[in-house]
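Researcher: Structure prediction, please.
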Amino acid sequence: MNLSYLIAQRLIKGRREGTSFSRPINVIAVVGISTGLAVMILAVAILTGFKQQIRDKIVAFGSHIQISNLENNNSLETIPIKTDLDFVTKIEKIPGVEHMQVFATKPGIIKTNDAILGVILKGVGPDYDWTYFKKCMIDGNTFSVNDSVRTNKVVISKKISALLKLKTNDTISMHFIQDPPRMRKFVISGIYETSLEEFDKVYVFCDIGHIKRLNGWDDNMISGYEVFIRDFDKLEELTYEIRDSIGYRIQENSVNIRVKNIREKYPQIFDWLRFQDLNVIIIIVLMLIVAGFNMISGLLILILEKTNMIGILKALGSEDRMIRKVFLYQAAYLIVKGLFWGNLIGLGIAFIQLKTGLLTLDPSSYYIKTVPINLDIIHIILLNAGTMAMILLMLLIPSQLVSRITPVKAIKFD
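Model: Predicted structure follows.
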């Protein structure tokens, strides 16, 4: 039988049933732990949710990995590659690659009676995955593309529609600066909003056939491929695999291919998102320190309150180690109690926000409309286990106070 555990159980039961001067201190310790854990859960859930939503928005515009002509550099007037290159089937068979689609881009100017606006016309093919943008549509619908007949429908953003005072089913004129200059009329099929203003204000989606015709390309020519993967954490690994699949082309007439992932394309955005991790680390450390010191004060009060009992146990031959375990068991009980309420509060608030979107944000500053929540069971387990372990480690030092108590003075202590 574990004597330390048995004594701790009796002390916990007696404290619940009776009164003691340590009770308010214990309540404060439990409140400190529960508040700290709730804040940590919310901080991690909000940060990971924020990063995930921003990342998904950027990926929707540019995919995880882009394959294009090396000579394009950052120009919007792209040099094409052909669709019959041998590496396409190899990439589609790579484990972790979810989808691959063609695209083409061309700069243009939308002109109305009152205003003009420079945009990027992004051509999409029959294989384009509209899943994300269908969730972002605020008016109208996306359009379908087939290889036989070009559609004149386009999808624009709410930002562009507001600037140019356009709505669905309106006809727009788009001008292209080339030799000779060209103009095309399009019909607005739908309006989307991602709240990512830097992208919303420039991207217009159309049938890829229009860009091929404007550029004088053959049907098998495109600006490049967009590759989507299943696990973002494997982005770098899959980027290298795709580069290996393409290989190095050194023949005189071969096309030099560039493979660029979304982190390399928008490093400033992902560096900013990575910087947000530091804020959460600071919050977690501060909450652990506060909860730890609350528990240290609570443990010291418990020891002082039971000084007489410690003296009797020592007089009966109990070792310091056994007596320390009595108080550590009591502290563990208080920690578990604090964790229970912390989980209840933190997960409760997170769940309410997830279902109702009660707390809103300014999209122009934060790129999203409501406070995002991402609840991951692994994060919850690690926060609970880490909090329990760190606080118990912090309690090992104050528990050494037991060894300084002598039986004679302790039994006389009142």
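Model: The CA atoms of residues 14 and 20 lie 9 Å apart.
Researcher: Thanks, that helps.
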